[in-house]
Amino acid sequence: MRSRTVAAELRRLREARGLSCAEVGEKLGASASKISRMETGHSGLQVEDVAALLGFYEVSAKKRTELLDLLKRGDQKGWWERQANLPTLWRSLIDFESKATRIQNYEPLLVPGLLQTDEYVAAVMRGIDPTLTGAELGNLIATRIARQARLTAFGGPQFLGVIHEAALRIPVGGTKVMIRQLRRLIELNERPNVTLRVVPISAGAHAGLRGPFAILEFAEEPALVLIENQDTGLLLEEEADLAGYRLALRNILSEAVAPDATETVLAALITELNK
């Protein structure tokens, strides 16, 4: 993530000066492809190369120090990286979530992870892997709940959660767990940075049937799309991929109930479960 931040700043600095990658490379004795790879994060950033670029762009000493220090801290680990036995995908996702300014998440079968109660998390994890020990399960639950602190903290990212009604009807953990989970969704939906939308079962076939995904946007770095399946996950950043998933999200939202009807849908489900 820190390398992405530096890479994005290098691109911004070059474009602000109206230079091409070829022109910069020619001045510094490097290929245009190398400059491009540095700006996209597709190659590891070396302190010496970054320092040379910052000098060429005549960046102020203060700004130069900040960027180089940020790059040098790339080996320092966040709390999620120090957590034992976490899935690799979780570490990457939390890393990106920690910097995201906007997250848009569509889920057809589960409540989005950032919105789950601890009971719901436990039931999901037990269902996915019954062999988990108590300690392993506790670690996963604690990590999932810790992720949510970013969402509810002051200055947290804007979050759009789009949930298929089927996910709200699957009795994860049983009736009482689901009632408390639905109440939690109502509470979160009242937060200024959280918007929840529900796609009704009556919508029938729609773009969301192809599976879950999340679009993460950042202040300076390129946006990402996260796709998860049974055992692996993909992080996509090509503009064509982003455009495709943004279109899919628009199509899914066209099938969802209006934002001001979300609480009514959730309350109706709670009433149904209480019968």
From TrEMBL:
GO terms of molecular function: DNA binding
Stretches assigned to the HTH cro/C1-type domain: 10-64
Pfam families xrefs: DUF5753 (PF19054), HTH_31 (PF13560)
Alphabetized InterPro entries for the sequence: Cro/C1-type_HTH, DUF5753, Lambda_DNA-bd_dom_sf
Source domain of life: Bacteria
UniProt KW keywords: DNA-binding
SMART domains: HTH_XRE
Keyword DNA-binding attached: yes
Record-given protein name: Putative DNA-binding protein
Organism of this sequence: Actinokineospora spheciospongiae
